[in-house]
UniProtKB/TrEMBL annotation:
The keyword Transferase applies. One of its GO terms (biological process) is intracellular signal transduction. This is Protein kinase domain-containing protein. SUPFAM superfamilies: Ankyrin repeat, Protein kinase-like (PK-like). It comes from the Eukaryota. ATP binds at K517.
Amino acid sequence: MESRLAAALEAGDNNSLLQLFQEVDNNLTIAVGGYKTGLLEQSLAHHIAYKSTDLQCFRAQIEKLGPECLTCTDKVNTPVHCAAVTQDASWMKLIYETLGSDCFRKTVDKCGCDTLMETDEFGDTPVHLAAWKQGPDSLKFIKGLLGPSGFHFKGCYQRTLIHYAAMKTGNNYSLKWLVDEQGSDTLNVMDATGYTPVHLAAQFQGSNSMQFIEAKLGPDCFHQRGKFQRTAIHCAAINAVSNSALKWLVEECGTDTLSVADEKGNTPVHYAAAFQNSDSMQFFKAKIGLDCFHWTGQCRQTAIHSAAANTVSNSALKWLADECGSEILSVADERGNTPVHFAAMKQGSDSMQFLKGKLGLDCFYQPGQLNRAAIHMAAMNEISNTALKWLVGELGSSCLLEKDSCDRSPVHLVAQHQDLETLRFVRDCLGDCAIKLMDADKKTVADYARMNKKHRDEMLKWISEQQVLLCQFSLDPNFSNWDYLLTNGGQQQLLGQGGFGKVFKAFTDKQQTVAVKIVHPDSSSTLSSQLSEAMDQEKKGMEILRGIRHTNVVLFLKTETTDGEIRIFTELIAGHSLLELMQRLKKPFDELAVRKFSQQVCSTLIFLHGRNPVILHRDIKCSNIMLTYEGIIKLIDFGLAKEIITATSTRGYSANQLTTVHFMAPELLNCENDEGRLVYTRKTDVWAFGCTVFEMLTMKPPNSKVNWMKLPARLSTQDMPDLPPEASDNLRYFYRRCVTKNPKERADAAELLRHPFLQSQ
């Protein structure tokens, strides 16, 4: 167990760590390499805090070992200190949620007072976050370290500590303490959006804060306009925690404040319907009657539209429909959307059942914006999938195939907005055709999944697995006889050559045209043993590759050996290699093409590298990447002895037998195992792919003018050559992540697929 954990930590293999946590019973002390000081022996929790890049691993560790794993010490530091030094704010937030504020003081004591003034990506310091998330004790502690001047710095949106304290839910102790410390004038300071602490306290706190503020400033402050010309009454109506501030303000400032529209045309009635429950609706009815619920706001939406979009509770929607009549549920806004559409997009099956009881099933067929029905809106519901499942159960699975005016089906929208479980549900409803669906622009379900920021990785992995199953084995591998296809001159039709063999066109007795790679043994006695071993390894790899069904991987059919000659049969791809295309075009590819090709290659590498046993290509370059006439990338020619049977296998072959040396990672050029073999890994594939990106933009691999024998020295002393000057910054960084010299720091395929370069349109 210890050795497997150490290997996963050293490799940065978060997926393996997550699996190993299931077997871990205690916070083991293990020795792990890769630190500046070499091998370091400490607890598993310390190693995770230092080495893991995945918050999910950290969370899984806490769930498995308990919070006490964060407080163990290595004589000096706890995992809390380690995470504070090496990780981002999300880790500290999880630690705080687990241990409470006591960890905050320990961290400051260890890291020094200067850390309190360091800003995060949003411009906030730990002082701002303490005002927002902690109490007066932490603020007093900070004041003792920094003095009063430490409270005058502004953070995100130019907000002061008072703004942050006003956003603290649960209590207003920090707000009161800071106002007493800094004076009541601080309550009038506007942030960059136009909000004062008064607005924010109304939005996040209760009536007690309103009373406190009135005592400091008087009631006029509640009428001051802020962001979108909103008053404190608008903000109190947005308060999803409590409606006590709203009720108090209406009582103090008068019911006229409820009819005041903001810049968008919305009143506090609209906002309370969107964020609060039926109690606020009853309060409004008692104060100003039912007519207020028919006032139109932004996009001519009423309070009923707002209540249907309420993600906190559907009690306001139900109350309004009962009080105002079910006909209000069919009223369309200026975009064509009714409360039915909004409820499908923001609420769950309970609301769907309620609407059916009021209007019948026909309401779910009514088209709205972009000709979308309720099923389309439910497919975009990022809160819950229960509305979608209920609608499918009521309307039938065929509703999932209905297209909107943009030619998008609910299946596409599920891939873009929901989670993997929902996409699986859709596939189960429709069968394999769900994965094959394309819109008018030929975008697939996978293309829409790439836009799903929250669930993209797991969706794409699953879709890749489904694509394997969808690649129907239309070519029959059970042929016994075949012949070469000949040219008009009677010559065998040569498709290409490389490595140990040549590739020809062939015709089988199953009346199918295929490609056959012919590998001839070398007659040299010094190579025969090595080649024989290589061919044995090739056969083992072929048995694994024959089971691969993936859109972006050439289909392997069979292998046979006759008279010492090995023959590998694959599908015949209609298209050209990327290298051949550039040669025919007489120019490299533009950035858009590189992005499209790279998306497909990275997705395929995730699939291959995630197999058990892992599959490595080991020969990625433009000549081994085919582009079909339909624009589909196909990886071909996995290289002789392509399959590494286990992730720790040390089998390999010399550079001139396997691949162009200019595509080889530095660890391959500088290191062989005891048998003189090269050790290929997932990261060597990534390096080769980075070199391929360079090749796509220049028509040559990096360092192409450097003699291959001098290449190891060049890579050890100089940086990899840069991309052409016209390449974007995102593309440059993407390339650099591929060709990082240290394989442990080099990106994996999953990181590359998430990279901004591949996500940009």
